[in-house]
Amino acid sequence: MNIKTICCIGAGYVGGPTMAVIAQKCPHIKVTIVDINESRIAAWNSSDLSKLPIFEPGLDKIVEEARGRNLFFSTNIDKAIDEADMIFISVNTPTKTYGKGKGMAADLKYIELCARQIAKVSKQNKIVVEKSTLPVRTASAIKNILENTGNGVRFQILSNPEFLAEGTAVEDLLSPDRVLIGGDSSEEGKKAVQVLVDIYTNWVPKERILTTNIWSSELSKLTANAFLAQRVSSINAMSELCEKSGADVNEVSKAIGMDSRIGSKFLKASVGFGGSCFQKDILNLVYIAKTYGLEEVADYWEQVILMNEHQKQRFSDRIVSTLYNTVSGKKITFFGWAFKKDTNDTRESAAIKVADNLLSEQANIAVFDPKVVEERIYADLEHLNSRNPEENRTLLKVENDPYEASKESHAIAVLTEWDAFKTYDWKRIYNNMNKPAFIFDGRGILDIKALQKIGFVCYKIGSGS
Ligand code: UDX
Ligand code: ADP
């Protein structure tokens, strides 16, 4: 089978960049991305490339090249499904907020809606690819829905988890460490796997394309994220010990990272990991383990999340205790709100929890983030439901300029590791702040010695200073 048309349901952080790269690398395939969110699709179609709904370095260039040629964004979901030989499901799978598995299991309602829509619309055989991170054995649920439509259409279901990290999505997609494709072991299943392999071989070396059974593929995704998050929680646990003992976590992390058995990546101590995947996927893993009665396995992985919560809490506690045990009425400036640099995504960002803790202490907060818009910040806080929205808006202000944001501030807290923060005129910032002027570097990116020379009182995560 030769794929001529692809449809992707979900124009988010995963679907958008992934399909843009497929379209760029496969000009012979027509790729249509659909979404129920009209304003998101309108933003993808915007002639002003700075208005794309998702900020990723290099993405605008790729969209510019492929859009209108073989890359299309649309809200006409039925038409795109009908036309497609292959359909990627790339909708969100948040943690359930209700019912059985509340707070742990993945909410599959969006996936199920997609499957039902595909079943309803399809007139010819199709390959359906799970792109969203899904708990093990979701494919069988999708299969059930698709196979019981009664209209004789045959579907093959593949799992092709994304391993792109936000902020480096384009790079990760262009030269992935590996591409994982899980499928059925039947003849038809193997053929479907090969069809997807053929798409990726347009730009990915064959030896980097790994094919497995569908359950292994689904579980590998959860495992990869659990292992990565575990490394962050492990180094964050050490960061607290470093602060007490006089060791410096950056030095420790460099020393152990040079051990080839450990490796240097994902050893950066931080105020806590965020993002749409880590917490959700680990909770998912915990839920699956519990479902199988594996209490110890569940507890082991849950600890990674608990450590992360502790890290956020202890950062805000540190701010309060350093500011003489009261922040009520004091102005604290946040540099960064996104869950990491080079993205406008804020899902599960540590900044949200830290802000919430400080607002509970009646602090005034001014937030500056180079890419996150004001409404997103208020929506993140409202989502917590800790206080009424007006109170959030009174206590927390969003600024477009770092110098304005830090004016008359008592302390600056660095929550995201944006490179730009290192290049600011820190002397100017210092001069306009309340004295003593404090800095709490939750990402360990600033030159503390230089800041101390200016006069700042500094705290850096994982070190005694
Ligand atoms: C992650 C996975 O890396 C990716 O493969 C998967 O497909 C989706 O989830 P992402 O959430 O985009 O990607 O970001 P990632 O770079 O993994 O960072 C996650 C969080 O961990 C961020 O908040 C980041 O700041 C934090 N982190 C990462 C650290 O605190 N220290 C580190 O050393 C690395
Ligand atoms: P991710 O990081 O997984 O890409 P996002 O929330 O950024 O998550 O993107 C998921 C997208 O999927 C959203 O834009 C949402 O509107 C879209 N979506 C969810 N359900 C459906 C559906 N049934 N049909 C079409 N689009 C959907």
Task: Give keywords.
14 strands, binds adenosine-5'-diphosphate, 14% strand, 6-stranded parallel β-sheet, binds uridine-5'-diphosphate-xylopyranose, globular, 18 helices, alpha/beta, 465 residues
Short description:
The protein has 465 residues and is an alpha/beta fold. It is 44% helix and 14% strand.
Q: How does the SSE layout of this entry go?
A:
Elements: E1 5-9, H1 15-25, E2 30-34, H2 38-44, H3 59-66, E3 71-74, H4 77-83, E4 86-89, H5 109-121, E5 126-130, H6 138-147, E6 155-159, H7 169-174, E7 179-183, H8 187-200, E8 209-213, H9 214-245, H10 249-257, H11 278-291, H12 295-322, E9 331-335, H13 350-360, E10 364-368, H14 374-384, H15 389-395, E11 396-398, H16 402-406, E12 411-414, H17 426-431, E13 438-441, H18 448-454, E14 457-460
Parallel strand pairs: 1-2, 1-4, 2-3, 4-5, 5-6, 7-8, 9-10, 9-12, 10-11, 12-13, 13-14
Helix pairs in contact: 1-3, 5-6, 9-11, 9-12, 11-12, 12-13
The chain binds uridine-5'-diphosphate-xylopyranose and adenosine-5'-diphosphate.
Strand order of the largest sheet: 3-2-1-4-5-6
Largest sheet: 6 strands, parallel
Rounded radius of gyration (Å): 24 Å
Stretches where pLDDT falls below 50 for ≥5 residues?
A: none
| Structural class determined from secondary elements | alpha/beta
Q: Given the structure, what is the number of helices?
A: 18
What is the number of strand segments?
Answer: 14
Shape descriptor reads globular
* Strand coverage percent: 5-15%
Distance between the termini: 62 Å
Percentage of residues in helical conformation: 40-55%
Bound molecules: uridine-5'-diphosphate-xylopyranose, adenosine-5'-diphosphate
Mean pLDDT: 95
